[in-house]
Amino acid sequence: MNIAVLYAVAVEGWLLNETRFSGHSVCLYETGMGKVNAAHVCTLAIERQRPDLVISTGICGAYPDTGLVRGDVAVARREIYGDEGVVLADGFVGLEEIGIALFRDGQREWFNVFDLDQQLVDYATGQLGCLSGTFLTLSTCTGTLARAMQYKEMFAPLCENMEGAAIAHVCVMTHTPVLELRGVSNIVQDRDLGTWDIKEAAKNSQQAVIRLINSLPSEATRQFPPA
Ligand SMILES: O=C(O)c1cccc(C(=O)CC[C@H]2O[C@@H](n3cnc4c(=O)[nH]cnc43)[C@H](O)[C@@H]2O)c1
């Protein structure tokens, strides 16, 4: 298969860069942090490489009491833009409530939520034996437990990151299959960088990407997901 793998910063991609993939054409893209960088590079990758599959990866913060602990890997079933909307006196209101779609394709409209292909997600979780669920994309990394609890109540997310929804969005716009998997570097709580383990999370997410790619049918087979 022709695969584009996107991650934000170097620590999330070093092992992938040292890996030789056989049976697949794999291009790696270090996007830089945040939604604009991710969307820009994802668009260029799709235009230039025309991948059969985009894999969005990196590290993330897991919300408390989701079953995820530091070092775990999780797969996104849906990506939600957590701060595209309006903040009113009684809280955050998303784009659907204010009637402004981010993207339209015929009759379909996308607001804050971008669902990923559930068949692909089931395939990835089956291969990796990990949790799957809602990933939240934010411009601002959450640094208080109180804010984390608000996000939990609004969106029931497994984890948060700063790029995923933008990549899912570009992939929907371009009809490109996409999977997202991330390693948990931290629990979203009152900010304490001493409790983060970026290296371990980044290593685990990259090992999962390698396992996933090695499980995929080779270029010659071209049936995806495998029956
Ligand atoms: O708070 C800090 O000073 C700080 C220090 C190092 C890294 C960060 C990040 O926010 C990393 C952002 C980077 O990693 C992803 N990520 C990892 N954990 C989280 C999180 O809890 N919330 C949001 N994003 C996270 C994200 O996708 C970025 O690419 C902060």
From TrEMBL:
Reaction equations catalysed: futalosine + H2O = dehypoxanthine futalosine + hypoxanthine
Principal EC category: hydrolase
Pfam (any one): PNP_UDP_1
Residue ranges of domain Nucleoside phosphorylase in the record: 20-212
Recorded GO MF terms: hydrolase activity, acting on glycosyl bonds
Pathway: Quinol/quinone metabolism; menaquinone biosynthesis
UniProt entry keywords in alphabetical sequence: Glycosidase, Hydrolase, Menaquinone biosynthesis
Domain of life: Bacteria
Known EC number: 3.2.2.26
CDD domains to which the protein is assigned, alphabetical: futalosine_nucleosidase_MqnB
Family, as annotated: Belongs to the PNP/UDP phosphorylase family. Futalosine hydrolase subfamily.
Function: Catalyzes the hydrolysis of futalosine (FL) to dehypoxanthine futalosine (DHFL) and hypoxanthine, a step in the biosynthesis of menaquinone (MK, vitamin K2).
UniProt name for this protein: Futalosine hydrolase
